[in-house]
Structure formats: C-alpha cells, structure tokens
C-alpha cells in the first residue's frame, strides 16, 4: 500500500510539472494551482521521496526544447518562401530565413525563455517555502520539547523539596484531626505540627552525635536517586509526539540539502535556456551567414544577446556563459572577415593610386574634426544638397594644412569603422586593435 501511494504521488507531481512547464506563454506567469503544488510537495517529503526535484528537472529540459521548436514553427508559418514539406529540419528552415526574419525569431526565443525562467522561479519559490516551513516547524517543536523537559524537571525537584521541608508527613494531618478534642481544626494541625517539629529536632540532635559518615552516605544516596529520576523523565519525554513527527519528515540536514538543490535547479534552468539559444545561433552560423553580416547587423545580434544574458543573470543570479561564448566565437570570425575585406580594399586602392593631391570633401573634414574632439562616430551618408560646402584643397588638423591623396581619405574612414566596431562590441577590442595595427603597417 505504501509503494502504491508513492507511485501515485510521483505520477501526480510529474503530471503537474508537465502541465506547468508546457503552458502557452499567452497565459499569466502565476504559479499553476499553488495549493495543489504545496500539498504535493508536503506529501512527497512526508513519504521521503526526496528526489522529486529530478522529475521537475527532466520536465524542464523537455519544455526548453519545445520552446525553440514552437518559435521556429510559428515564424516559418508566416514565411511563404519556405516550403516545410520539402525542408523538414528546423535548422535548415532557419538557414533559409533572411537576416531580418531570423533576427526576429531570435528575439522571440529570448522573450519566451525569459517568461519560461520567470515561471520556473515562481514555482521553485513555492517549493522552497514549503521546505523552509517544515524545517522551521521542526526546529520550533524541538525547542518546545526542550522547554517542556526543563520545566518538568524543575517542578519535580520543587515538589520533593517541599515534601522534605514540611513538618507533616502524609496521614499525620488526618490523624491529628480525628484525635483532637478541641473546636477548631487549625488547633489540631498546629498541635500535630509542633509534635512533628519536636520529633524532628530530637532526631537531628541524635544524628549530630552519631558518626558523620552515616549522614554523608545517606545524602549521596538521595542525590543519586534524584538524578536517576530526572534521567528517566528525560527519556520518557524525548520519545513523545515531537519525535514521532520527526520520524516521518526528513531531517534538518536533508531539508537544508533540498533547499540548496532548489537554488541549483534555478541555475540549471538558466544554463539550459542559454544552451538552447546557442542552438539557434549556430544553426544560422553553420553556412557562414553570421560572418557575412554587416557590422551594423552583427552589432544588433551582439546587443540582443548581451541584453538577454543580463536579464537572465538578474532573474536567476547566475552568469551563464555558453551563449556569450558562442557569440564570442562568431565575433572572432566576424573580425577576421571584417579585417580581410578592408585589407583587400586598401591594397586595391594603393595599386590604383595616382599619388596626386586630392580634394577633401566636407564629410572627411568632419571625420577628422570628430577624431580630434574625441568623438568616434561615423556620420550617415547624405545625398549632396545645394547648401553643402565645397571640397577643400587641404585637410585641416589643429589648424595645420595637409595635402593628401585619395587613399589617405579612405583610410581615415576605415580607421573610424574599426573604432566603431570596438565601441559596439567591446569583447573584440584586443583582436581589433591588433588587426588595425596590421592595417596601418
């Protein structure tokens, strides 16, 4: 019967976990059936099924895979150019997307995983509260038992001391009342107490005249008897109701371990989410698509990835590295292609250079002025207007005139493009600086 109950509770928790993690993201992020979850967790702990978090972890991994599939299917359904009957694999479908379509898919995946992690954190918070409440209750019960034990021992000691100090032994009061001939009961009791005190005084006088060893031995015997009584009382109280309850529930050490595992499970959820996003990134990068992006497009991807990484870090208190690592790998490839393109372009310009003084358009003069002011910004190209300044014969740098050739002007623009990339993607600074130095040689 016990095994059947265990199986039923595990099956119920599995069903709950699957339902909670597979909900559509159009629903709210509230905990699904909170009362039911609390009852399930309490029951599993009472049955000592301490591995129930492994069940939730497995369901969490399956749900994460489903998120990517759900996003891809939704995006592909809106693109007429992709025939899902011919192109079956999700990776192949993503490669057929344009950058704009794929980037929109990537942002949707990031958004869904943030909602996914928010739900997981809320559910794990409820589980953690149940565990901590049981732990707190267990500690309070033990403290109450300890207080009850201490109070019981003190009360028994006080009763014994009162019996020893009292002048009347049990039965003396009744005997005095029956044999007294006066009108008042108090007279009978007072008379009996005087007789008892007199007898006690005589007994103490005789005891002083006897050997002192006899008194010491009797005191030792009485003290030993008292300690034995307290020990027996302690044993009987310890085996009370609190102990019976603790036998059913996990120990404090086990409960503390479960609480730590809950936090680790949230870390795992963050890592799983990043790993699934890496799949989306690498699916597009497999045919070199990300390497062929323009610097502006790659910057968009980089910023989206960094924003997602920061959001998950704030939500889960976990710095997951797989997605950032995958982006860094793609950034290195992007830098290599970026540098090779400009190196080839500069080589062609030098081969065709006539080495004659060239006119300096206002755009290039503005670029040099921006560099001198410490602002590394590429201006947008604008069509020539009627009020545009005429080209100058010289390039002005700090008031000095320089005659330049056409290659120098284009080299200035390339220099700013390198600086702009570093500004947009700080992680490639060292690599880009090395390649810029190679370009200027």
Automatic annotation (TrEMBL):
Biased composition (Low complexity): 213-224
Region (Disordered): 147-168, 194-238
InterPro entries attached to this UniProt entry: Vps54, Vps54_C
An example Gene Ontology molecular-function term: syntaxin binding
Location in the cell: Golgi apparatus, trans-Golgi network
Keyword line: Coiled coil, Golgi apparatus, Protein transport, Transport
Domain Vacuolar protein sorting-associated protein 54 C-terminal: 400-441
Regions of compositional bias (Acidic residues) in chain numbering: 156-165
One Gene Ontology CC term in the entry: cytosol
GO annotation terms (biological process): Golgi to vacuole transport; protein transport; retrograde transport, endosome to Golgi
Family that this chain belongs to: Belongs to the VPS54 family.
Protein name: Vacuolar protein sorting-associated protein 54 C-terminal domain-containing protein
């Amino acid at each position: 019967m016990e095994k059947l109950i265990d199986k039923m509770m595990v099956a119920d928790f599995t069903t709950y976990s699957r339902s909670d993690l597979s909900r559509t993201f159009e629903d709210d992020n509230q905990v699904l059936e909170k009362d039911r979850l609390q009852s399930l967790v309490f029951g599993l702990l009472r049955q000592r099924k301490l591995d129930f978090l492994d069940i939730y972890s497995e369901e969490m991994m399956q749900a994460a895979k489903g998120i990517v599939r759900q996003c891809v299917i939704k995006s592909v359904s809106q693109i007429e150019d992709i025939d899902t009957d011919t192109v079956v694999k999700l990776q192949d479908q993503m490669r057929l997307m344009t950058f704009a379509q794929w980037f929109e898919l990537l942002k949707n995946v990031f958004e869904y995983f943030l909602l996914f992690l928010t739900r997981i954190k809320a559910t794990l918070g409820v589980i953690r509260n149940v565990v901590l409440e049981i732990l707190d209750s267990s500690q309070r019960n033990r403290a109450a038992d300890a207080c009850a034990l201490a109070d019981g021992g003190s009360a028994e000691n006080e009763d014994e001391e009162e019996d020893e100090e009292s002048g009347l032994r049990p039965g003396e009061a009744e005997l005095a009342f029956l044999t007294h001939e006066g009108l008042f009961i108090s007279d009978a009791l007072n008379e009996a107490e005087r007789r008892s005190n007199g007898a006690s005084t005589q007994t103490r006088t005789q005891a002083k005249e006897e050997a002192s060893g006899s008194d010491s031995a009797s005191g030792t015997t009485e003290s030993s008897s008292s300690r034995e009584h307290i020990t027996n009382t302690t044993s009987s109280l310890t085996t009370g109701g609190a102990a019976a309850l603790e036998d059913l529930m996990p120990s404090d050490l086990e409960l503390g371990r479960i609480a730590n595992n809950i936090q680790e499970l949230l870390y795992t959820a963050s890592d799983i989410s990043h790993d699934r996003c890496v799949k989306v990134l690498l699916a597009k990068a497999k045919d070199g698509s990300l390497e062929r992006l323009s610097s502006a497009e790659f910057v968009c991807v980089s910023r989206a990835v960094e924003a997602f990484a920061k959001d998950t870090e704030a939500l889960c208190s976990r710095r997951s590295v797989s997605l950032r690592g995958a982006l860094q790998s793609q950034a290195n490839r992007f830098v290599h292609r970026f540098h090779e393109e400009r190196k080839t372009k500069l080589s062609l310009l030098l081969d065709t250079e006539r080495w004659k003084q060239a006119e300096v358009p206002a755009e290039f003069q503005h670029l040099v002025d921006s560099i001198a002011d410490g602002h590394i910004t590429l201006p947008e190209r604008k069509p020539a207007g009627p009020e545009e300044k005429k080209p100058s014969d010289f390039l002005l740098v700090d008031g000095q005139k320089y005659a330049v050739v056409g290659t120098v002007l284009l080299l200035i623009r390339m220099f700013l493009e390198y600086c702009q990339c570093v500004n947009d993607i700080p992680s490639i600074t060292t690599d880009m600086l090395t390649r810029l130095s190679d370009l200027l040689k």
